[in-house]
Amino acid sequence: MSTQEEQANIGKVLSFLREWDRGDRTVRSRMLNTFLSQNTGKTFYELELEFAQVASLFLARLTTWMRLTYMFGTFLGLQLKAIGIFLSASGHDQYLMEFLADGGVLTLLDILNHTETKEEEKSEALHLLLTVSNAGRKYKEIICESHGVKAIAECLAKSNTDETQEAAWALLESLSHGNPKYQNQIYKGLIALMTCTSPQAQQLVLHTLHTVQSKMKTAHHSIVDPLLYMLRSLHLEVHNQGKLRKCLKPHGDKLVTD
């Protein structure tokens, strides 16, 4: 790109940011729709080229707007999808680190806890948290340090759609791998979920609990009553996860109390 082209691109980006800063929510929603249609699937370096090396300025504005307005549901789904373009951009984790530094994980967890958040918005927030978790151990720990396991587990237990339940389960599954510091916390969170009322949620939880239990040297005593409760379930899909009993057999004489 020539110097003249670079100057023209910088001018275009500055004009874009000015329009964003001056625009109302209708203008911003239009800009986000355009951003989504033009930038979905782009890498970090492609976004940097598109935004004249200052894409971070737009991400910061977008994150701040979401944090200030998510309680009112102002284009939340659109905001989450736009942020997803940055977090999923391959080639570098700069956007991910900036999002976390700006309190992004806490905002996403607050969105899960907010009673007015729609199911599809919760699902989108869970997908973003999964992107964070899949980035590596230190990112998993940030989610857990922010009391994420509890928020995600409650979302799984209370959700009334398959999509949100599966997204919450996928996130717990991701957090359970390569995260030794918080393995016990996740394990206890899964045990607590065994008594939730949704058969699908129970089935998903058992799948992950089987994997986590196989890594534990002992079985926690609190698993016994929920397991017996589930074995009395009339739902065949829950019974199909009966392999958990086999997993517990080697630990039968090694129940721990804390």
Q: Average pLDDT across residues?
A: 89
Number of H/I helices: 16
Determine the structural class based on helices, strands and strand pairing. Answer: mainly alpha
- Order of secondary-structure elements: HHHHHHHHHHHHHEHHHE
Low-confidence stretches: none
| Main sheet: strand order | 1-2
Radius of gyration: 22 Å
Shape: elongated
Termini separation: 62 Å
Largest sheet: 2 strands, parallel
> Could you tell me the number of beta strands?
2
Strand content: under 5%
Note down, in words, how this protein is organized.
There is one protein chain. By secondary structure, the protein is mainly alpha-helical. 71% of the residues lie in helices and 2% in strands. The chain contains 16 helices and two strands. It has a two-stranded parallel sheet with strand order 1-2. Helix 2 runs parallel beside helix 5, helix 4 packs antiparallel against helix 5 (76-87) and helix 7 runs parallel beside helix 10 (148-158). It is elongated, with a radius of gyration of 22 Å. It holds the Pfam family DUF5578. It comes from Sander lucioperca. This is Armadillo like helical domain containing 1.
